Amino acid sequence: VRVSAKAVYSKYSIEPASPMDFGALIKGTKKTQIVVLENKGMLSFKFRICQAPEEVPALQGKGSKEEETGPSARQRSIAKKPSISTQAQLNLGMFTVSPCSGSIAPWGQQKITVECLAGQEGTCEEQLYIDITGR
């Protein structure tokens, strides 16, 4: 009896790389940006977007595209406080992220919408992370 198996782990890319900057907005206006989470592996994986705990340092992007593979892959920041969501969207200050969880088939991708509604004057900054199962 011949038996074989191949051990693999989740492979993915996140584009654009962190940080995401909406720039200056006129109070009361809205601007939307898209983050693309792509499954580059042979297995489906689930993802969840959460608000990063305050003690997590901001991660610096290295270019317009980041690719992560393997068990040492780190969570990427895309745009600071703790919260976990299983809802369709995550609301943080002036930002709304959706969807904030889901599953991506092999070689599939998920477009994640990050919307900024300029509320009160001043700077608003939030730090998020994308948790991917099996990374």
UniProtKB/TrEMBL annotation:
Organism domain of life: Eukaryota
Gene Ontology terms: biological process: axonemal central apparatus assembly; cilium movement
Gene3D superfamilies assigned to the protein according to its UniProt record, in alphabetical order: Immunoglobulins
Region span, Disordered: 58-82
InterPro entries xref list: Hydin-like (IPR033305), Ig-like_fold (IPR013783)
One cellular component term from this protein's GO annotations in UniProt: axoneme
Record-linked PANTHER family: DLEC1 DELETED IN LUNG AND ESOPHAGEAL CANCER 1, HYDROCEPHALUS-INDUCING PROTEIN HOMOLOG
Protein's UniProt name: HYDIN protein
The species this protein was found in: Pomatostomus ruficeps (Chestnut-crowned babbler)
Lineage: Eukaryota, Metazoa, Chordata, Craniata, Vertebrata
